[in-house]
Write a structure and sequence with these properties.
Elements: H1 3-21, H2 55-64, E1 66-69, H3 75-89, E2 99-101, E3 120-122, H4 128-135, H5 137-147, E4 151-161, E5 172-175, E6 183-184, E7 189-195, E8 206-208, E9 220-221, E10 235-236, E11 246-248, E12 255-258, E13 264-266, E14 275-284, E15 288-289, H6 298-312, H7 319-326, E16 328-331
The protein binds 2-oxoglutaric acid (AKG).
Pfam family, one: PhyH
Enzyme class: oxidoreductase
GO cellular component, one term: 9+0 non-motile cilium
Length: 337
């Protein structure tokens, strides 16, 4: 586009954005929690320049650390993920490397393979059908706005939040996903989380604390919950209780992209159904591994390495080995990770 025309267009767009946002705080998760008046593209640090995100969307992510894209994943794809999840739960397929988790309230004696006993499957990088989620062009198109063109799928999950037993164990405590990751920089990592059905406060939607991605990684540990806590569900130890909270009510196929420092969690599932979502953490293949020994991440690193050692019967694996094994390139080339 001719530079004069481009700058004229930008001015019109800016005027439009400034008018829309003047003095308003809109209680909708894709709209401006913050004002758009201070737009300075050169100050963007959480999003990259390309033609996918509008200025408004970039600004929103920069200020809030998340962005919801409506209706991104098709019903047909979601049905395929659901079918594959059910096959895994019935133990008809056992993808290598996959962890199958149960809610802490489910005792071993109840065990009969069924989707009612599985609260989450993670690390489905070897399951062709579920891993299709991480390669969907409509997902990667947005992921690239945060990671750049060389994209690694690092961590995959299908979460089947069970109806709460009354002990409130279906809650996911507030946390920052970076706590689990031994790679940086954080601004080159993004989570895509897709609702596999209508999700609201009744069945335990995501809750996010807008703007907290601008802070630093905080210490995490198991919360002191009376009814018990699920394995690896570390919660943030200290955060600003006055920070606004936004509950993300989403429809099937809606996808939220969020920064790994954004404080988030999810509520109790008060419905009778199993609330499903599929997600992947993506990272720029140029990210590098860090040594988390002696940092606040040491506690989770020990748990992750112990779990992987038991699973593969190996004694001397490291956090870096675990993540190198989990990671798959989904666009461009594999570089450091
Ligand atoms: O899906 C959920 O309930 C929460 C997922 C989440 O925050 C996570 O696994 O990091």
């Amino acid at each position: 586009m001719d530079p004069n025309r481009a700058s004229a267009r930008l001015c019109v767009l800016l005027r439009h954005l400034r008018c829309r946002s003047a003095g308003t705080v809109i209680a909708h998760h894709t709209s401006g929690v913050g004002s758009l008046a201070s737009f300075h593209p050169q100050q963007f640090q959480y999003t990259r320049e390309n033609n996918v995100l509008s200025l408004e969307q970039r600004k929103f992510y920069e200020e809030n650390g998340f962005l919801v894209i409506k209706n991104l994943v098709s019903d047909a794809d979601i049905q395929r993920f659901r079918n594959e999840f059910e096959r895994i739960c019935r133990e008809e397929v056992k993808p290598f490397g996959l962890s199958v988790m149960r809610d802490v309230t489910i005792t071993k004696s109840e065990y009969v393979p069924s989707e009612k006993l599985v609260s989450k499957v993670q690390d489905f990088q070897e399951d062709e059908e579920l891993f299709r989620y991480c390669t969907l062009p409509e997902i990667l198109k947005y992921v690239e706005c945060f990671t750049g063109p060389n994209i690694m799928a690092m961590h995959t999950m299908l979460i089947n939040k069970p109806p709460d037993s009354g002990k409130k164990t279906s809650r996911h405590p507030l946390h920052q996903d970076l706590h689990y990751f031994p790679f940086r920089p954080s601004n080159s990592i993004v989570c895509a989380w897709t609702a596999m059905e209508h999700i609201d406060r009744n069945n335990g939607c995501l809750v996010v604390l807008p703007g907290t991605h601008k802070g630093s990684l905080q210490p995490h540990d198991y919360p002191q919950w009376e009814g018990g806590v699920n394995i690896m569900f570390h919660g943030i130890q200290d955060y600003d209780k006055n920070n606004a909270r936004v509950h993300l009510v989403m429809e099937k196929g809606d996808t939220v992209f969020f920064h790994p420092l954004l404080i988030h969690g999810s509520g109790r599932n008060k419905s009778q159904g199993f609330r499903k979502a599929i997600s992947c953490h993506f990272a720029d293949a140029n990210c590098h591994y860090i040594d988390v020994e002696g940092t606040s991440q040491e506690n989770i690193a020990k748990e992750i390495v112990n779990m992987a050692s038991k699973m593969y019967g190996l004694n001397d694996i490291t956090m870096k080995d675990v993540w190198t094994f989990r990671g798959r390139v989904v666009k461009g080339e594999r570089i450091n990770l």
